[in-house]
Amino acid sequence: xxxxxxxxxxxxxxxxxxxxxxxxxxxxxxxxxxxxxxxxxxxxxxxxxxxxxxxxxxxxxxxxxxxxxxxxxxxxxxxxxxxxxxxxxxxxxxxxxxxxxxxxxxxxxxxxxxxxxxxxxxxxxxxxxxxxxxxxxxxxxxxxxxxxxxxxxxx
Length: 155
What we know:
10 strands
């Protein structure tokens, strides 16, 4: 539409996007559901998609591919999301992972080359993911930067 969405340095705009358009314009992202409890955003990677009351209380949050932690096994709470590695692609110092959740959702993750070498994964492997504490959380309606810590249910 020709409008300037946000002014600032690349660093400022990338780390503090004003809206979803700016966030999406500056790189890949994943969309998850989360609960807000006691001023913290708790990703609900494994929630009952048939529970209508729960679905109403969930907020939409976004994370960059490097804000995803990869695990070989689920944690004792079962709060990590089971995924299958569709394709892994080395990209210099990182490895890009195309994942598919058990709910058939596409997820993009990025890990360091060293992590990939020390914990090798093959295409087709089942892994579990969690969001690390660096993730930025946004509410979709209205679009507001919540500026609250994102709690990893795995920790």
